From TrEMBL:
GO terms for molecular function: ATP binding; ATP hydrolysis activity. Residues 5-252 form the ABC transporter domain. It holds the Pfam family BCA_ABC_TP_C. It comes from Seinonella peptonophila. This is Amino acid/amide ABC transporter ATP-binding protein 1, HAAT family. Transmembrane segments: none annotated. PROSITE patterns: ABC_TRANSPORTER_1, ABC_TRANSPORTER_2. One of its GO terms (cellular component) is plasma membrane. Keywords: ATP-binding, Nucleotide-binding, Transport.
Amino acid sequence: MDALLEMKGITKRFGGLTAVDQVDLIVKKGEILGLIGPNGAGKTTFFNILTGIYRPDQGNIQFNGTDITGFKPYQIANQGIFRTFQNIRLLKDYSVLDNIKLGLFRQTKAGAWSSIFGLRRSREEEKKVAEESWALLERLGLTDLANEAAGNLSYGNQRRVEIARALVSHPEMILLDEPAAGMNSEEVESLSALVRQIRQQGTTVILIEHNVGMVVELCDRLVVLDHGVKIADGDPNQVVANPAVIEAYIGGQEVTEVVGD
Ligand SMILES: Nc1ncnc2c1ncn2[C@@H]1O[C@H](COP(=O)(O)OP(=O)(O)OP(=O)(O)O)[C@@H](O)[C@H]1O
Ligand SMILES: [Mg+2]
């Protein structure tokens, strides 16, 4: 098996709360893996561990044959792992194009400002950055919005710009945290097509999503977290039919509907 990512016994505690509890995960190169689970299950925390925002209290992370446990975020980026955030993090007053260019530089120590204002870069570098960013805009169908302030875009398009910003570095692996949140069904379909295209270009994808219909349709495999524990891992259709998974979702939901007479 061609394991790109191998995580073993990953545990993260916040005080008395175990947000991620002894999770093992293997991701194969070229896979689209869906990570699902009820609110508070530990999904985003899992991404924060994988991207070096948190160091796991226990466990080990191997990526591409390198032990990356405890790596800082920029070191993780240097390994080719990029992400989007559950709460969109764009510079709202800057253009779509500038936001994407930023993706090429924020993993370096040179910093964000020099990238926006073109400091410390040669003309050739500047040209290359502009070309790469523009090519991505074309690929994502965002060229008409290139000079628009990111904050003026629809929710769905802002999420696409976030994905573009992660893609501009040609990631080995991309982590998408609820990319379909706030999208209508048409936008969700075009997002799924984009994710398939990303995989086709050789990037491995992990996707956190509450839209179960979308993940079953799109993902090669689903992993389910509940209270930080991995409760299922396998074929999407089988996973969503698994009684423990159904219970995890229903158990967390308040019953608001009253059957009256
Ligand atoms: N920095 C933190 N400090 C303390 N508790 C935290 C912190 N980050 C997350 N938690 C807690 O860890 C648990 C898991 O949170 P996490 O955000 O990972 O869940 P999630 O599965 O992404 O949920 P959602 O679907 O709502 O985004 C929650 O109980 C949350 O309150
Ligand atoms: Mg989350």
